[in-house]
């Protein structure tokens, strides 16, 4: 596997990061443009808080973990300044989207804006040691924990009490976020959150009968035979499993690492398109038609996060199945998503593996999954 290491290093440093550094910064109004065409041309100037924070996190992380390049720290600070000035509502919750100038467009209904804001400032604090950065990360985390039982609050569109369901996404991301911000929290709080998240992800959302991870369950952790209850998102579950492997390392828990590795392989087996290759976006656990019309698309992040999980699984357990699957997913992803002509990777393919959209960034895709996965894979493969 080591022969791949140089490939991932070169792709990160010579292709992907230069694309974002060249085309993304808004030097006039602050923050980053993320709606970029194939060649980097800006096609929409709205700013999405998830992506602003993710990009600030990416450059902070690379500064801290790879090399203290001033240009990376400057990029992170550029994004963080815009976020601090514009992204946080009077209540302390983080807006979802803003105009180019930073005026709120969509209310702070989405707790993942807060999660990625917390990640960005926790990572930036490691680089700057500025108490203001650390304090913002910590207070944001406290608000996330306070909202976790009702993340959308009064912006929830579901009628209360008729069909309550709990969703996989927040406990899944908390598995990663608690390690990102551990340096700012009391040890006993970190251990408590880790224990809770492991239970939620590995017990509550795991359908032992089918050997698969569900996206939604009842508040009691039971299966709901509905569109939402039958939903599988293979890439999401596999990404969560490398978070769990990290927690296994943090705790020295080899059994947890083994279990997470096995479940990532189970989800990959179920999610792989046996006809055209690639990982399906959504599936129904009973094989019924999913309600998501985009169910058979192939998305960049699912494949990149799967490569991280497989490389990590192979590194930590030596399971040859991880090596075989890594090479298979690598071949698919590098053949279909990578754009050697203009840099960065495509995000959205049809089932046959052809680009549906040639954009490099938009409302959901920014400078995060590609560089994070390239960096992680490079480090593990090396």
Helix fraction, binned, reads 40-55%
Low-pLDDT ranges: none
Counting helices, strands and paired strands, the structural category is mainly alpha
Number of distinct beta strands: 14
The SSE string, one letter per element, is HEEEHHEEHHEHHEEEEHHEEHHEEH
Order of neighbouring strands in the sheet with most strands:
3-4-5
Question: What keywords describe this structure?
Answer:
mainly alpha, 3-stranded antiparallel sheet, 8% strand
What does this structure look like?
It is built from twelve helices and 14 strands. The chain has helices at 5-23, 49-65, 70-86, 111-128, 131-147, 169-180, 187-204, 234-251, 254-271, 300-317, 320-336, 369-381, and strands at residues 35-36, 42-44, 47-48, 97-98, 104-106, 166-167, 206-207, 212-213, 216-217, 231-232, 283-284, 298-299, 348-349, 355-357. Strands 3-4-5 form a three-stranded antiparallel beta sheet. The protein is globular, with a radius of gyration of 20 Å.
């Amino acid at each position: 596997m080591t022969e791949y290491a140089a490939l991932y290093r070169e792709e990160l440093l010579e292709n992907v990061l230069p694309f974002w550094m060249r085309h993304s910064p808004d030097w006039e109004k602050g923050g980053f443009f993320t709606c970029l065409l194939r060649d980097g041309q800006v096609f929409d100037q709205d700013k999405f808080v998830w992506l602003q924070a993710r990009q600030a996190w990416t450059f902070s992380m690379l500064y801290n973990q790879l090399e203290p390049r001033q240009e990376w720290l400057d990029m992170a600070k550029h994004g963080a300044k815009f976020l601090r000035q514009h992204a946080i509502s009077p209540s302390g919750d983080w807006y979802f989207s803003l105009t180019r100038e930073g005026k709120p467009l969509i209310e702070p209904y989405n707790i993942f804006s807060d999660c990625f804001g917390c990640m960005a400032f926790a990572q930036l604090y490691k680089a700057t040691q500025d108490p203001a950065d650390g304090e913002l990360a910590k207070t944001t985390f406290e608000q996330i924990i306070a909202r976790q039982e009702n993340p959308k609050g009064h912006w929830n569109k579901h009628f209360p009490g008729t069909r309550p369901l709990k969703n996989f996404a927040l406990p899944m991301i908390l598995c990663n976020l608690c390690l990102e911000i551990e340096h700012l929290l009391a040890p006993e709080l970190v251990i408590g959150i880790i224990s809770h998240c492991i239970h939620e992800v590995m017990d509550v959302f795991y359908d032992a009968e089918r050997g698969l991870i569900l996206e939604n369950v009842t508040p009691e952790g039971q299966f709901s035979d509905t569109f939402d209850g039958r939903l599988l998102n293979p890439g999401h579950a596999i990404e969560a499993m490398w978070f769990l492997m990290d927690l296994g390392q943090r705790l020295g828990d080899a059994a947890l690492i083994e279990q997470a590795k096995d479940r990532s392989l189970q989800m990959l087996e179920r999610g792989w398109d046996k006809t055209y290759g690639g990982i399906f976006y959504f599936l129904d656990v009973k094989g019924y038609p999913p309600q998501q019309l985009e169910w058979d698309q192939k998305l960049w992040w699912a494949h990149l996060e799967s490569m991280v999980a497989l490389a990590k699984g192979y590194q930590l357990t030596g399971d040859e199945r991880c090596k075989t699957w890594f090479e298979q997913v690598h071949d698919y992803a590098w053949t279909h998503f990578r754009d050697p002509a203009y840099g960065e990777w495509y995000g959205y393919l049809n089932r046959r593996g052809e680009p549906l959209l040639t954009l490099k960034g938009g409302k959901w895709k920014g400078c995060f999954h590609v560089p994070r996965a390239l960096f992680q894979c490079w480090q593990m493969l090396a």
